[in-house]
Cytochrome aa3 subunit 2
Amino acid sequence: MRRVLLSVVQVGALLPAALYHLGALAAEAPSREADLLAAASTPLAYFLRSRGPAAQPVLYLGWTLATICALVCVIIAGMLLIGMFRRRKPQDARALVSEGGVRLVYVGSVLSTIALFGIAVYMLSVLAEVADPSKTPGLTVTVTAYDWWWKVDYVDGESRFSTANELHIPSGVPVLVLLKSADVIHAFWVPELAGKTQTIPGTANRQWIHADHPGIFRGQCTQYCGVQHAHMAFEVYAQTQADYDRWYTAQMGAAPAPSTAQAIRGRKLFAERCAGCHTVRGSKASGVQAPDLTHVLSRRLLAAGSVVNTPENLIDWIEHAQEIKPGTLMSDMQLSPAEAGDLSAYLATLK
Ligand code: HEC
Ligand SMILES: [Cu+2]
């Protein structure tokens, strides 16, 4: 009994402090790139702020539901406390009916029913609101989920290119994302920009995202899809139109032919060992089961958010993919030190 009371008091004392910290976090708006990166990886940040119109209604819905749940807890705990302190003697139990205590039960049931019905209507209206905003997309991209990475296809008339685990969009523009799956059911979720949508083999789902301001937003697969489900992250880069155009033009280009002897040896090695799975546009490598590596150096992270893309991590990934991401569909590549050097020199040209 004492312990119960103590816990209630403790939670009561902690709540205002927690709310204060949440409020302070929500108020700060990250501006510099470093802050954006930090913000991109803050867990639960999606409960504090939304960065686009598609996420705003979901955020409010989350707050409303959390508030109602908290109220229910407080009210029930309060009534429980009252009940404990004003307990009748066992032989008085029948007094409950004569004193009208049962009426409270009816009132409670009716209130709960009304509240639940209201919540259901509110939820459905939020679903309808985020499913189809009355806008035409400024950009349409196709995102295909693979075990355990994301392929992003940009198609503009004849020209097309694809990248992996990075979705670049111009900020302030509604973007329609067509969601597909190459294998099992995954779910695409960029909490600060939009709700979750499943990717289902054989169909294309639709998801709108729209970033109000430039920034980097972390996304994550949220449907359990196998051993490396947790390492199936991606990032959305919302950029100014000028930055986005610059990125787009650079991605469109094919890889240049390597010029040093070492890099040329590296490309030959790549053709022998990697081309069955990976594509490098501008070379003969045209595998489709793995990320397009034409501009792999332009990416911030490797292997769906597993490691930061540095020259050391890049070659480490190639030789020890199974250690970094056990079960991933790329095996450890056995390379002699000379081969590793050649391959690194070639990959360094894939900017
Ligand atoms: C059997 C097919 C296969 C072969 C062969 C293969 N890879 Fe991969 N590779 C993959 C898959 C699948 C992924 C995605 C792994 C993940 O994120 O879970 C990948 C990921 C990568 C990545 C990270 C790309 C990114 O943007 O995250 C690099 C770099 C890479 N491979 C380089 C190579 C090199 C170099 C070789 C040859 C020495 C090679 N791979 C051979 C299947 C393969
Ligand atoms: Cu997944």
The mean pLDDT is 86.
